[in-house]
Design brief:
Layout (H helix, E strand, L loop, with lengths): L2 E9 L2 E8 L23 E2 L12 E7 L5 H9 L4 E5 L2 H13 L3 H15 L9 E5 L8 H7 L4 E6 L2 H10 L14 H7 L3 H6 L2 H18 L6 E4 L2 H5 L8 H14 L25 H15 L10
Parallel strand pairs: 4-6, 4-7, 5-6, 7-8
Antiparallel strand pairs: 1-2, 2-3
Length: about 300
């Protein structure tokens, strides 16, 4: 049975992970690293020296997203099909980029690690798996050019949402980069926004989130390949998967699975979906930041006609 990389840790400039045997039932969780919740694993492998898998499911598409835009719904809908492997926001990928930030790793080292980590993640567990997808954590888009170099033949999908709605949603349910400005040493926020810790702390929550989303959108425009398919939430749900795949039989199955997933909370599949009727909070941004966000948002909207197909 293949061994998969879970529970990664960064020690100086080395990445270690727990090698865990997984069967096909383990890949149904909304986020990959949640597939191992109980049994502790003490053994650790060094990513740089672990054995390269001989067989993988070649990645069909990489999914990038702004945040809180239904990307987990897309991943869950795809993963519900037996022939699909979907790896959602794996921590091993996050750790590779954290090492890049903290240790200033050379690009080539990062690219090699990405190739190896994704090969480890996409080892087949049965003969029926034909299609594979990686959904990256939203801030991974800051390193999209390295991912392009590591996998130049893979198609890219980017899911977008109106930025003010994302800010309102993140304020209600902050996670990941939405909390970097609260860290005692906001190294990541400082590094990506090119601001000092004091400057980060002086930003209001709205301004900080606005700056981060502006950076996400900048990379969505300038770091993704020309053949990227741009999808807008919630419109993409009605169009999916027609604007992604050309296989009619596959479209029918995916559409059925998505209809079923829409009844449940994508991030907590056991819970029924409950759409909140609460009005969105007023977002307080400076005029200059608001104008920048609106301009780049409109530029992304202009790209939504792109189809994801052969390059």
């Amino acid at each position: 049975m293949p061994v998969f990389p879970l529970r990664p840790v960064l020690v100086a400039d080395q990445i270690y992970f727990s090698p865990v045997e997984l069967n096909e039932d383990a890949f149904g969780e909304p986020f990959f690293d949640d597939c191992l919740k109980t049994t502790p694993v003490n053994e650790k492998c060094d990513l740089d020296t672990c054995e390269v898998p001989l067989h993988i499911i070649e990645p069909e598409a990489f999914i990038f997203h702004l945040s809180h835009c239904g990307s987990t719904l897309m991943a869950q809908s795809l993963a519900a099909i037996n022939s699909h492997r979907v790896i959602s926001e794996p921590e091993i990928i996050n750790t590779i980029f954290l090492s890049k930030v903290f240790n200033n790793d050379p690009d080539e080292k990062c690219i090699n690690r990405l190739r190896l980590a994704i090969r480890l993640l996409l080892q087949p567990v049965n003969a029926n798996e034909k299609h594979a997808f990686i959904k990256f954590t939203s801030w991974n888009i800051f390193h999209a050019e390295l991912i392009r170099k590591a996998f130049p033949e893979t198609r890219f999908i980017y899911i977008h949402r109106e930025p003010a709605e994302v800010i309102a949603s993140l304020k209600k349910d902050p996670n990941g980069f939405a909390q970097w400005n609260k860290h005692a040493a906001p190294v990541l926020a400082s590094r990506y926004l090119k601001k000092s810790a004091d400057e980060i702390y002086r930003l209001t929550t709205d301004e900080y989130l606005g700056e981060m989303l502006l950076l996400h959108m900048h990379h969505a425009l300038h770091s993704l390949p020309a053949h990227t398919g741009y999808l807008i939430f919630p419109d993409w749900i009605k169009q999916f998967p027609d604007n992604i795949f050309n296989d009619s039989a596959r479209l029918t199955v995916i559409r059925k699975k998505m209809t079923q997933r829409l009844l449940f909370n994508a991030k907590k599949p056991a819970e029924k979906f409950n759409k909140s009727g609460e009005p969105a909070e007023k977002i307080l941004l400076s005029n200059s930041l608001r104008i920048k966000i609106q301009e780049i948002h409109l530029r992304i909207l202009d790209r939504t006609s792109n189809k994801i197909g052969s390059k």
